[in-house]
Amino acid sequence: MKHILSLVILITSMGACWQCGRPVIQPSIKAKKLNRIINGDFAVKSSWPWTVSIRYVNNSRQILHSCGGTLISHFYVITAAHCFITKRTRVVVIGSSNLNDRLKPKNIFRISKIHIHPQYNSNFLENDVAIIRLSRKVFFNRNRLPICLPKTTDISPIFNKSVVVVGWGSSNGSNNRKALSSRLTQAVLRVYNEQNNFDCKRFETNNYCAYDPTSRSANICFGDSGGPLMFYENNRWTLYGVTNFMLNDPVTLRCHNRMPSFYLMIPNYIKWIKQTINS
């Protein structure tokens, strides 16, 4: 009887390790006390195990980061549709939080199919979301876990709440590959939809509008597209947004870290996501 009890406890604890939205290695951001992306912090390695790097293969056979994405199951990743505006060979790197890591075959996943939202409008970045079907199964471990999806189509749970964004985007605001952060960075933003913010009003109907109200002025930038906007609820991290675009300085064209950034509202696309995956 003791042996049977021990086995049951072991299986239960192992199963709990691989639940969605629950990283084995805890982030340095305290989920219950949310108070480079530009001015962001470096993330603890593997603390956001669902964050993936979408990369393209250049003429020299180098595999270079272009966008972020979020693992939602053994076979599927969610990202932004505009990450695929050019026809290049792309792969998804999962389980590595440093762009300079020497890639192992187990971390490189070929893409079987890309599902662009049928109403995607590249001119206005409307319905800017895509689902990637991977060519092989992702076996979960502490470095590779899925995030949870919202259970309803309600977009309001994160209004006026603190959220977390992560990515490898430009750390100095310039649109330059050398400016990318080799280490995954994280930032806490606040969602300002329906707060009568002038800069939000222009785009908030279809996007979450968020920025950092503190003096640090952290924000997303070039290279962060497609990455997750996350909210901690019911003791787990949930994917509420996909990084779509930010405002840039009209003179320097650098990312404007004191202005809002905008994120596709995942709750509005739950039905399409489920239909796409189930088909």
TrEMBL record:
Signal listed as a keyword: yes
PROSITE patterns membership: PROKAR_LIPOPROTEIN, TRYPSIN_DOM, TRYPSIN_HIS, TRYPSIN_SER
Signal peptide annotation: 1-19
Record bears the keyword Flavoprotein: no
Sample GO molecular function, one term: serine-type endopeptidase activity
InterPro entries: Peptidase_S1_PA (IPR009003), Peptidase_S1_PA_chymotrypsin (IPR043504), Peptidase_S1A (IPR001314), Trypsin_dom (IPR001254), TRYPSIN_HIS (IPR018114), TRYPSIN_SER (IPR033116)
GO biological process: proteolysis
Domain Peptidase S1: 37-278
Family matches, as CDD domains: Tryp_SPc
Highest rank taxon of the organism: Eukaryota
UniProt keyword terms in alphabetical order: Disulfide bond, Hydrolase, Protease, Serine protease, Signal
Pfam families xrefs: Trypsin
PANTHER family, sorted: ACROSIN-RELATED, HYALIN
Protein name per its UniProtKB record: Chymotrypsin-like protease CTRL-1
